[in-house]
Amino acid sequence: MVRLPLTPAEVARGQRLGSLLRRARGERSMLEIALDARVSPETLRKIESGRVATPAFPTIAAIADVLGLSLDAVWAEISRSDGDVGAANADHYAGERLTA
Fold this sequence. Notes:
This protein is mostly helical and 100 residues long. It has helices at 8-25, 30-37, 41-49, 57-67, 71-79, 90-93. Helix 1 packs across helix 3, helix 2 packs across helix 3 (41-49) and helix 2 packs across helix 4 (57-67). The termini are far apart. 26% of the residues are buried.
């Protein structure tokens, strides 16, 4: 199967996701978060760096849960356009738990 190249919007969304996860992780180690979320540290590193712009939903759900982010908060942050003023801050969402 051939993968289509990512659009600029998908790349930007992946970068916003990575930035949100890094901010939410704070001082906690990447290894700790990855292990708690049951993903490889390499996967988390690639998502945080924007190298994986379209990660699988279960992966993001697991990481968000460990970081205390609601999926609504994650979606609000990554779906905003680059022209939007006032990016959502991960601290704002601290303490919100993922509910399934």
